[in-house]
TrEMBL record:
GO terms for molecular function: hyaluronan synthase activity. Keywords: Membrane, Transmembrane, Transmembrane helix. This is hyaluronan synthase. InterPro entries: Nucleotide-diphossugar_trans. It comes from Callithrix jacchus. GO terms for cellular component: plasma membrane. Pathway: Glycan biosynthesis; hyaluronan biosynthesis.
Length: 280
C-alpha cells in the first residue's frame, strides 16, 4: 500500500475515533447515566467515567504499540557502513549537582548504540571542580576505555604557567585522550559553554560522523541516539535533529533536557570560520 494512502487512512481513522469519543463523552455527560452509585451519590461510576476510562486505555495501548514499533525499527536500522554511522556524545558540565551528573552519565552508559563515544568537558579546572572528574571515574572510569586530562588552558585562553610548548602539548594531549578513549573527561580553564563545546568538537575533528550534545543534568532515553540518527540518515537535506525536551515529572518518566545531533561536516565548517575570523 502506498505510503501516502496509508497516512491518509491513519488521519481519517484517527479523526473518526476522536469524533466518536467526543460524541460519547457528550452523550454520557448529558444523560448522566450511572452504573453503580451509593446512597446520596457519595461514590458513583457512570457512563461518562466508563468512556473516559476506555479512552485512556485505548490511548495507552496505541502508545505502547507505537513505542514498541519504534524500538524494533531502531534495533533493525542498518547503517550503510560502520564508519558512516560513528557518533560521539558531548556532555557540557559546569558545577553540576552530583546526583544530576551521575544520572546523566548512567543514562549515557545505557544508550543502545554500538561503540558510542562519550566526551565530557568540564568548564573549570579548579579544586572545587574536581568532584565532577571523581563522578566520571565512578560511573564511566575504571576501564582501559576511559581517559581523562586536566588542562590548565583552553583553546582560546592560556592558563597560568603555560608556555607555548606546554600549550601545544596540552592541545595534543586533549585530542589524543578524546580520540583514543570510548569515555573521556577533559577539565579545562573556565571559558563558558561555547568554549566547552568548542573543545569537544575540535578534539573530535573528523574522527566521527555525527555529534550529539547535551547538558550534564540531562537523562537520556536509551533509544535517543538511534532515533535521531535515523532522521539524519534518511534525509541528506537534514543537518540537525532535536530531541523531545521534557522537564522532570512531566509526561513520560524520561527526563530529557536539550538533546541535539549535528553532522560533523557542519561542525568543521563552523570551526574553520572561527579560526579565520580569529586570525584576521
Amino acid at each position: 500500500m502506498p505510503v501516502q494512502l496509508t497516512t491518509a487512512l491513519r488521519v481519517v481513522g484517527t479523526s473518526l475515533f476522536a469524533l466518536a469519543v467526543l460524541g460519547g463523552i457528550l452523550a454520557a455527560y448529558v444523560t448522566g447515566y450511572q452504573f453503580i452509585h451509593t446512597e446520596k451519590h457519595y461514590l458513583s461510576f457512570g457512563l461518562y467515567g466508563a468512556i473516559l476510562g476506555l479512552h485512556l486505555l485505548i490511548q495507552s495501548l496505541f502508545a505502547f504499540l507505537e513505542h514498541r514499533r519504534m524500538r524494533r525499527a531502531g534495533q533493525a536500522l542498518k547503517l550503510p557502513s560502520p564508519r558512516r554511522g560513528s557518533v560521539a556524545l558531548c556532555i557540557a558540565a559546569y558545577q553540576e549537582d552530583p546526583d544530576y551528573l551521575r544520572k546523566c552519565l548512567r543514562s549515557a552508559q545505557r544508550i543502545s548504540f554500538p561503540d558510542l563515544k562519550v566526551v565530557m568537558v568540564v568548564d573549570g579546572n579548579r579544586q572545587e571542580d574536581a568532584y565532577m572528574l571523581d563522578i566520571f571515574h565512578e560511573v564511566l572510569g575504571g576501564t582501559e576505555k576511559a581517559g581523562f586530562f586536566v588542562w590548565r588552558s583552553n583553546y582560546h585562553e592560556v592558563g597560568e604557567g603555560e608556555t607555548e610548548a606546554s600549550l601545544r602539548e596540552g592541545m595534543d594531549r586533549v585530542q589524543d585522550v578524546v580520540r583514543a578513549s570510548t569515555f573521556s573527561c577533559i577539565m579545562q580553564k573556565w571559558g563558558g559553554k561555547r568554549e566547552v563545546m568548542y573543545t569537544a568538537f575540535k578534539a573530535l575533528g573528523d574522527s566521527v560522523d555525527y555529534i550529539q550534545v547535551c547538558d550534564s543534568d540531562t537523562v537520556l532515553d536509551p533509544a535517543c541516539t538511534i532515533e535521531m540518527l535515523r532522521v539524519l540518515e534518511e534525509d541528506p537535506q537534514v543537518g540537525g535533529v532535536g530531541g523531545d525536551v521534557q522537564p522532570p515529572g512531566k509526561g513520560m518518566a524520561v527526563e530529557d533536557d536539550q538533546v541535539q545531533a549535528a553532522q560533523v561536516r557542519a561542525i568543521e565548517a563552523s570551526i574553520h570560520q572561527h579560526h579565520v575570523s580569529r586570525e584576521q
